[in-house]
Amino acid sequence: MLRLLQIESIKLWNNRASKFLIVSYFVLLTSIALIAAIKFDIGPIEFHLADQGIFNFPYIWHFNTYMAAWLKLFLAIVIVSMTANEYSNKTIKQNLIDGLSKWEFIYSKFLTVLSFAAISTVFVFVVSMILGLIYSDFNEVSIIFSDLEYLLAYFIKLMGFFAFCLFLGILVKRSAFALGFLILWQILEGLFYLLISWQSDNRTATAIAQFFPLDAMGNLIKEPWTRLSAVRTAASQMGEEISKDYGVHWYTVGIVLVWTALFIYWSYALLKKRDL
Q1: Cis preceding-peptide flag for 58 (omega within 30 of 0)
Q2: Are 251 and 156 in contact (CB under 8 A)?
Q3: Residue 115 contacts residue 269 (beta carbons within 8 Å)
Q4: What is the pLDDT along the chain (276 residues), one digit of tens a residue?
Q5: Cross-strand pairs, 48
Q6: Domain spans in the chain, listed from the N-terminal domain onward
Q7: What is the pTM of this model?
């Protein structure tokens, strides 16, 4: 396992573009802290975003994992590129000649996917903990360590998404086309949802769409904005009540894990079938 990870890390670190994207990704994750500095005045009203409770425990786990998940495209590009480069640089063939089996090749990529997801999760945990200890109004241990399931959901979301990107890289063999296919797939899921809702209703469409891979990943961490007391107060003043389930559910986790396993298996099946 360590040998396979070492091989992949050498490949990534010797690639200038991959190195830049990885460093940029973690710099941007750190920049979540800059949200605390957003402050502006509207006449006599002073608005400081950090004072709105976004860094309060345990809400911060929900907010930061949701925000950080938007940056996953940076590492998605790295994963697609590292897979496509294996074909364009002929390194995949050389690895197999040097004694690496096709399963070990896929396993090494999956270990890289797991490493990216795990390191990102730990990084978000550390950043969130620091911000929470500085800005949160609640510092009781029981409150600090509640709602940590959002970190688990974040890890599984990244793992599933990166496994999908790995599969696309193996399938298409060209990074630009693979990323284009990823965008196309997102559009197709949206079109399928509209088609189903047109044929039946929104409730049925939502129930079916939760099994689509990207939709399932998105359902792991729902938007946190309407949980804010300021948003709920504003909605209440307009005569509307916000009723939404923000929890991380076992069935959503299960759906993403099944898709992750399928993407890894299909990647291996494609590689095994191809004559390299």
Answers
A1: yes
A2: no
A3: no
A4: 677 777 777 777 777 778 888 888 888 888 877 766 566 555 555 556 666 678 889 999 999 999 899 888 888 888 888 887 777 777 777 767 667 788 888 888 899 999 999 999 999 999 999 989 988 888 889 999 999 999 999 999 999 999 999 999 888 877 778 888 889 999 999 999 899 888 877 788 888 989 999 999 999 999 888 887 766 676 677 766 677 788 899 999 999 999 999 999 999 999 888 765
A5: 39
A6: 2-6+53-273
A7: 0.90
